[in-house]
Design goal:
- The structure is a single chain.
- With about 170 residues, the protein is an alpha+beta fold.
- It has helices spanning about 1-65, 70-80, 85-95; strands spanning about 120-125, 130-135, 140-150, 155-165.
- It is built from three helices and four strands, in the order αααββββ.
- The protein is elongated.
């Protein structure tokens, strides 16, 4: 019986040493993987930050080219004739008010086919031009609008060109 007990003790001791060595290896391997993973995660975050930076730069450059907010000459023109104010917002608000008419927007030269044609988005390019998107919910297009502001700050719009997409 003592003989079996000593075999069992030796067996348990051997198994314990084996498990200790294996767990030590596993811990070291996990630390290595964790370090490699954290380096990859950091690299991925850096790449994402770079992508976000470049996307922001592209949007900034795109916005700088044609925008009333970034066109000092156009802003000066509006200020000289009409005084101080947020002209970009004022012009866009007046344009969007044309959507309030019943039925199709009177500025859009197309009849809505699956609803009323309304202006969905617009950008004031300078002190005379607006580019706008329009849609009826299914069909859409774009148009170039010239606007005039009279001395009473009333705005008159004239569509210069338009395109309806299929």
């Amino acid at each position: 019986m003592k003989k079996y007990a000593s075999y069992i003790i030796v067996f348990l001791l051997t198994v314990s040493v084996y498990l200790f060595v294996q767990s030590n290896k596993q811990i070291k391997e996990n630390e290595f993987l964790k370090k490699g993973l954290s380096e990859n995660v950091m690299k991925n975050l850096a790449q994402k930050d770079s992508l976000n930076y470049f996307k922001a730069m592209i949007l900034e450059l795109r916005d700088d080219d044609f925008s009333l907010n970034n066109n000092q000459d156009a802003q000066d023109y509006l200020y000289d004739f009409y005084g101080d104010g947020d002209w970009n917002r004022y012009i866009l608000d007046k344009l969007m008010e044309t959507n309030e008419t019943k039925g199709d927007n009177p500025l859009i030269p197309y009849a809505g086919m699956s609803g009323n044609m309304k202006i969905s988005n617009a950008k004031v390019l300078n002190h005379r031009w607006i580019i706008a998107n329009f849609t009826d919910g299914k069909y859409w297009g774009e148009m170039l609008i010239r606007f005039y502001i009279n001395k009473n700050k009333k705005i008159r719009f004239k569509v210069l060109d338009q395109d309806l997409y299929n």
